[in-house]
Amino acid sequence: MTDTTDDIAEEISFQSFEDDCKLLGSLFHDVLQREVGIPFMEKIERIRILAQSALNLRLAGIEDTANLLEKQLTSEISKMPLEEALTLARTFTHSLNLMGIADTHHRMHKVLNATQLSRSCDDIFSQLLQSGISPDDLYKTVCKQEVEIVLTAHPTQINRRTLQYKHIRIAHLLDYNSRSDLSHEDRETLIEDLVREITSVWQTDELRRQKPTPVDEARAGLNIVEQSLWKAVPHYLRRVSNSLKKFTGKPLPLTCTPIKFGSWMGGDRDGNPNVTAKVTKEVSLLSRWMAIDLYMREVDSLRFELSTDRCSDRFSRLADEILEKESCEQDSDRGQSNFSNQQSSSLPTQLPARAHLPSCIEFGGSKQPKFEITTTSDYMPPNLQKQNGQGFTKNDSDQPTDDSKEGLTPRGSFSSTSQLLFQRKLFAESQVGKTSFQKLLEPPPLKRASSAPYRIVLGEVKEKLVKTRRLLELLIEGLPCEYDPLNSYETSDQLLEPLLLCYESLQSSGARVLADGRLADLIRRVSTFGMVLVKLDLRQESARHSEALDAITTYLDMGTYSEWDEEKKLDFLTRELKGKRPLVPQSIEVGPDVKEVLDTFRVAAELGSESLGAYVISMASNASDVLAVELLQKDARLAITSEHGKPCPGGTLRVVPLFETVKDLRAAGPVIKQLLSIDWYREHIQKNHNGHQEVMVGYSDSGKDAGRFTAAWELYKAQENVVAACNEYGIKVTLFHGRGGSIGRGGGPTYLAIQSQPPGSVMGSLRSTEQGEMVQAKFGIPQTAVRQLEIYTTAVLLATLKPPQPPREEKWRNLMEEISKISCQHYRSTVYENPEFLSYFHEATPQAELGFLNIGSRPTRRKSSSGIGHLRAIPWVFAWTQTRFVLPAWLGVGAGLKGVSEKGHADDLQSMYKEWPFFQSTIDLIEMVLAKADIHITKHYDEQLVSEERRGLGNELRKELMITEKYVLDISGHEKLLENNKSLKRLIDSRLPYLNAMNMLQVEVLKRLRCDEDNNKLRDALLITINGIAAGMRNTG
């Protein structure tokens, strides 16, 4: 939901975009006439025309008349009864959303119809070969590429998921409407469908009435995978493979995956007490369950498709062995009806959904795909469809659902034979009367493998998947079960084995065209998504680990860990890491916060690296922060291994320090160097993580700490220093970028961001977060998801083989230091040192009311304090975006640029802009933000909401905004903002009539609400204006 996602350089067709806006606007107008009546519609139209006229006059330079019209608009809004204000807010919010839908549709349409897009695989591969890169180097670099996109639950997606789906459906109906072969009857039906969807949108509550739980957030993320990425990934990989074959002569290897996916949803506990060890375990199991369920559906379709009898001798023998085994099991178990001998028929019992369509049609290989939405809950076990508090409902049998001794490990051990027999008895009784009936529905089992060998082998795959899914259901419900490695799947390699055998057999028997269809797509999905869809990262603040170690060392009479100096901490941690005994005694009693930390490490040990990704330490500042996590992780693995009598699954998790504040970013290089100088740690990285160190850099807190410009420069230098430290010890490094959606939190076009990184920081590997509304904007529709994945691939490839230019001369770095110093001083003197700023912030913005949006499970503050320091970066940026000040993205920048320019370096800054990608992207992003800011709107907020003694501060900030705009234009050489991005400028301008009116309405509602704080209807009206302004700005936080 952001303009900054426009990685696709091509402009949309504005004529067709405007035609669609008119169509949707007309249909919405008709719906509203039925819903609210003609008289009120006339009032809404009058307000829109007033806002449009004022805007046109201001653009024409007729300020006085524009001011008069805006005063008239303010007056009319102030006289509105509450019910009318609420309806007006809803109307303009939906109008802005419909314009956004038309925009999304035309970007998608451009992707589908363009013969060759810029930054596509064909485009970049061609450029690289022409620049002298050899085909072999190109091929090897693509095959070795490791990019991971990490989906997070950061609370910036303001639209309810129900409305997101309805918006997607409208976009697909618009796509269908663009077909030239529609009959008159078809078009009339389509219009009726659009009217139904728009009516449904209007009659749907826009507001979330309760906060989502972490499990709710995880399900939303997994739903993006199911609805979009699941379809997009095979087509993205096919596109990469076809381009590689075209330019190098070799296709992408079938199991090669340049991009994978991770998640923080259900694992990010930094400042969020709702994410517990129990929640993490449930979310991980849910993710595995959904992966198995999706694979079952694909195997069903594949069994229907692969009816051929051509196969290799080896494959034929395998099918015979399976038939023989099934026959023996049926003879030995005849008459019994328990779970372990339920066999899948080798022939499909019914036609799978869309199995009659070729694989490409599911995604939309035609340029007019039919869009279908399936609900995840249709495929979920009953207990996953309802939630109780933060997790799932408890089972009626009151079986334990925690990690008590009667509980379960993820590897499926059970504690009581009698419990297991009881469960089997219940299952057998539930099957009475069903077996005979089932035989009437199913075809008789095959007697000879030669008639349908692939169906036989895939039938066994389906059977194992069914048993694996059932095992996971029992684990989720907290019921006893037994894990049989011969009858279920635990790793992706186990699932890949029979699929690759099918592929090799088809290839060798002259059925290559069948092998490269659904089967190849399924193999690529298994290689990409594994058995968990998305590996879950864990994140916790460094101070929480110190508290845990304090409790342990105090209990052992060793002193207080947090009071030791860094040298003593490292000596202690290294000594314990080299030892073979557990550190934490089983008898230790600790407080609830420490217990939660220790429980998290136990869950991590139980799930292992097959289910989990990295352990991220937020607010990391020392080498001991990393070793502390390594020790707690080692201790938990030793304890779990001892209890269960077998090794923990998978390996240890990667421990990733996250450097966020300016102080910590400056220390990042020395900290990594100190870590790698420790023999134990260096050997551990080489042995357990393939000589690979991962380091995360945070954009949000550094920006709130020092301002956007200083944060950008400190991030650049930190990456240089981390790369140099790792190179010194021969360790490979992957940088993990914690980017937000908005520019104030490090957001921006993916391609531009990657291409402006320091040389050597992107060497074929990259991790990056995609947060909140960005997940839906980039990956919510399969077609746009394919395009985004392709952009990630080509940007990383280009940064690896043709790294961006460093500063041409040392003078440029010195100028950056000076700009950064002035900018930071100005920013901090305003935000942290001005005693009036905090009060001004609360008065001039709706920050205090943002918490009622219920868009995230975590609190808006890390700690209970009213200061800016403990306010999270998202509400900080969100609040300023609402008032159109967008202050966090530019404050201090103008002062820095002015200070250096006035010392005679204006020409140097212009040269830096033209020749240094990092500096150019920084200025361009600030220019994009300035184009969305509006001085007149911010002044209106101040005049109506801010106490008179603080309005002077607002005036000073507006002067700073104008100074920033002047120097940004001077450096870029542009006469007007966004002169180099006219498409974006036109899109922004098209939304302004609705957006300006929404801002004025928000001011009026805020005035009333601050005099009547308990008025729930007023609060609803305010929240709807927040939704509408977010839709118009295409940004939240």
Automatic annotation (TrEMBL):
<dbReference type="InterPro" id="IPR022805">
    <property type="entry name" value="PEP_COase_bac/pln-type"/>
</dbReference>
<feature type="region of interest" description="Disordered">
    <location>
        <begin position="372"/>
        <end position="414"/>
    </location>
</feature>
<dbReference type="InterPro" id="IPR021135">
    <property type="entry name" value="PEP_COase"/>
</dbReference>
<dbReference type="InterPro" id="IPR018129">
    <property type="entry name" value="PEP_COase_Lys_AS"/>
</dbReference>
<dbReference type="InterPro" id="IPR015813">
    <property type="entry name" value="Pyrv/PenolPyrv_kinase-like_dom"/>
</dbReference>
<protein>
    <recommendedName>
        <fullName>phosphoenolpyruvate carboxylase</fullName>
        <ecNumber>4.1.1.31</ecNumber>
    </recommendedName>
</protein>
<keyword id="KW-0120">Carbon dioxide fixation</keyword>
<keyword id="KW-0963">Cytoplasm</keyword>
<feature type="compositionally biased region" description="Low complexity">
    <location>
        <begin position="336"/>
        <end position="346"/>
    </location>
</feature>
<comment type="subunit">
    <text>Homotetramer.</text>
</comment>
<keyword id="KW-0460">Magnesium</keyword>
<keyword id="KW-0456">Lyase</keyword>
<feature type="compositionally biased region" description="Polar residues">
    <location>
        <begin position="373"/>
        <end position="394"/>
    </location>
</feature>
<dbReference type="Pfam" id="PF00311">
    <property type="entry name" value="PEPcase"/>
</dbReference>
<feature type="active site">
    <location>
        <position position="154"/>
    </location>
</feature>
<comment type="similarity">
    <text>Belongs to the PEPCase type 1 family.</text>
</comment>
<feature type="region of interest" description="Disordered">
    <location>
        <begin position="326"/>
        <end position="349"/>
    </location>
</feature>
<dbReference type="InterPro" id="IPR033129">
    <property type="entry name" value="PEPCASE_His_AS"/>
</dbReference>
<dbReference type="GO" id="GO:0015977">
    <property type="term" value="P:carbon fixation"/>
</dbReference>
<feature type="active site">
    <location>
        <position position="704"/>
    </location>
</feature>
<dbReference type="GO" id="GO:0005737">
    <property type="term" value="C:cytoplasm"/>
</dbReference>
<dbReference type="GO" id="GO:0008964">
    <property type="term" value="F:phosphoenolpyruvate carboxylase activity"/>
</dbReference>
